[in-house]
Amino acid sequence: MTESATIQPVPTSEDAFLGGRLRLRQPIAGHRAGHDAILLAAATVARPGDRVVEFGAGVGAAGLALASRVAGLDLALVEIEPRLAALAELNAAANGFPAEVLVLDVAAGAAAYTAAGLVPDDADVVLMNPPFNHPARHRGSPDAARRTAHVANPTTLECWVHAARRTLRSGGVLSLIWRADGLGEVLAALGRGFGDIGVIPVYGRPQAPAIRVLVQAVKGSRAPLQIHPPLMLNEADGRPTAQAKSVLDGEQILPAPVGPN
Predict the structure, then answer these.
(1) What is the pLDDT of residues 40-86, one digit of tens each?
(2) Which partner for 67 in 97, 166, 222, 241 could form a disulfide, CB atoms 3.0-4.6 Å apart?
(3) How far apart are CA 115 and CA 16, in angstroms?
(4) CA-based nearest residue to 176, from 81, 37, 26
(5) Domain boundaries in the chain?
């Protein structure tokens, strides 16, 4: 990324993730990384040397959390907002993880991707936490960056999955997190070009509907869908479950439904 010097700084905080092993600078106001990014990283399988691309990286939380677990990734962080991309670049350097940071709209066409250095059929893993709140059911934030990061338009998921399909090599893995009540949308978007789809439901508390789904899919596979054991974040009294605490502290990964072929 070459635009950092011209970007106006924003007030930031330094926050600890993975039990303090990952420290991230992020804006005090607007979009902030949280549990979703860490869960996404914990459910994503990668191997040393893999080409890994994170779409909608924000300050780099998911990609850098994955890099903290898997050494030697060829990591690219894609973010549309220049100020967040600048923070992602700072965070990668501060935590000692080499990463290429690209200011790019995930929904851009193939020519823009190639110009940015993301050529087709190249990545082993794409991970993404797309904007997923339904605009009709979610009151958008007055902060434009936060609104962009959280509220989907009708074509968001389809565009992001299409971009992932173009970027991944055959046999490469797409890993994403989405709201649980939108699982049908995810399966529909993955219907063209992906198989071996694995789903981990994420529950906020017992006796309540799932709030998220972690989904992995393999480009070009024809293997059937599998629903895997769920993750419960909290006990009935609101305390984090032992598994959730272990995952969020980076001591345990989630049993990933699929892995790179």
Answers:
(1) 999 999 999 999 999 999 999 999 999 999 999 999 999 999 999 99
(2) 97
(3) 34
(4) 37
(5) 33-248
Q: 36: number of CA atoms within 13 Å, CB side?
A: 24
Model confidence pLDDT, tens digit, residues 197-232: 999 999 999 999 999 999 999 999 999 999 999 999
Q: What is the pTM of this model?
A: 0.88
Q: State the Cα–Cα distance between residues 261 and 104, nearest whole angstrom.
A: 28
3-state class of 112 per DSSP?
helix
How much is the pLDDT for 31?
Answer: 82
- Helix intervals (H) in the chain: 35-42, 61-69, 82-95, 110-116, 144-150, 156-167, 183-189, 242-248
Closest by CA position to 199, among listed 178, 220, 168, 219:
178
% of the chain residues with pLDDT over 90: 82
Q: For the chain, what is the total number of helices (H) and then of strands (E)?
A: 8, 11
Mean pLDDT to the nearest integer, 184-194 = 96
Report how far residue 13's alpha carbon sits from residue 28's, in angstroms, rounded to the nearest whole number: 6
Where does 180-209 show beta strands of DSSP type E? 194-203
Level-2 CATH architecture, domain 33-248: 3-Layer(aba) Sandwich (3.40)
User: Average pLDDT over the chain, rounded to whole?
Assistant: 90
Q: Give the list of residues 6+ apart from residue 239 with CB closer than 8 angstroms, or none.
A: none
pLDDT value of residue 153: 62
Neighbour count for residue 191 (Cβ, 10 Å) = 11
Which positions ≥6 away from 208 have C-beta within 8 Å? none
Q: How far apart are CA 174 and CA 29, in angstroms?
A: 30
